[in-house]
Amino acid sequence: MDPELELFVKVWLTAVGSLVYCRQIAGRIPGGPARLLAVLPAVYLFIALPFQLSVVVLGAPTVFYLGWLANFKLLLFAFGAGRLAAEPPLSLVEFVAVGLLPVQKSKGAESSPGNRFRLVLESVALAAILWLSSYREFIHPNVMLILYGGTIGLCLDLMFAVTSVAVRAAVGMELEPQFDRPYLATSLQDFWGRRWNLIVTGILRPSVYLPVRRFTAPYAGEKLALAAAILATFAVSGLMHEFIFFYLTSRATPTWEVTCFFLLHGFCVVLEDQMKRGGVRRLPVGASRISTLGFVGMTGAWLFFPQLINYGVALKGIEECLTAIAYVRDRMMVM
């Protein structure tokens, strides 16, 4: 993995240089179409750079951070919006850190013992899943689906944790909140809007949800504007997941199953909202949690996971994790 690590460093150094350009040169242009033209080269780079990497465990975070989050921040910045256009202006180091990663100024609180214990448990759980996956030929496919789902959730949480440690040490900032106990969600609104991958929620709200709602409200009324904003947000999320899957599957032709997954959930969230506004009685909390997680799990098995499994992405990621663990172990033995 040494050559791939070297390429990984080059990709991120290029990204840093692009953000320096955006602040020092493009940032001097007033927000609007002219600034948009100035930042488009960086947007193109952030789309192209992840495709230089072939290792999933390095490329997946890169395509997520650069291809999605950083580009949406740059598009907001082009029109004088978002955190990159904050007043007073961010320092160069802050601009680069906020532009490339989902970070915020540190509140000075160190990681609590509870959080550290949770990360240890998650690491043990991920190790157990990786070990079980080596016996996948003896495991029922439905059980493997559950294991793949657990792997994605654990890898996301641990990826954010590693990023948080690195960012805190390098620039004294901390990661934005990522998850808020999604297993306690009592509705799809609660799951997607307040508990699951809050970093994505935080970037989609100012870049898609609020603009669509503001634009459509004068013409369609507040009720339809809300529905349009929700559907547009889920549609964009689906398309960005298709982009990530396009990278993960080595440029395989999209099947649009992932987009259908998010559009289905968008329609269901709109329906939930209408039912709540109509006074429909809610299920008890326990039943709401089971039905919410059950719906997410079943629709995920139907529409979200097939591409990852059929193209061998999940298996490749697991094998790379095992290779990385062996690599670190061997290096530690040499030291």
TrEMBL record:
The Wax synthase domain extends over 176-263
Among the entry's GO cellular component annotations, what is one?
membrane
Q: Which residues are listed as membrane-spanning?
A: 38-58, 65-86, 145-171, 224-248, 283-305
Give the subcellular location. Answer: Membrane
The entry's keywords: Acyltransferase, Lipid metabolism, Membrane, Transferase, Transmembrane, Transmembrane helix
What membrane topology does the UniProt entry give? Multi-pass membrane protein
Q: Which GO terms describe its molecular function?
A: O-acyltransferase activity
GO BP term, example:
lipid metabolic process
Instruction: Report whether Phosphoprotein shows up as a keyword of the record.
Output: no
Q: What is this protein called?
A: Wax synthase domain-containing protein
Organism from which the protein derives: Genlisea aurea
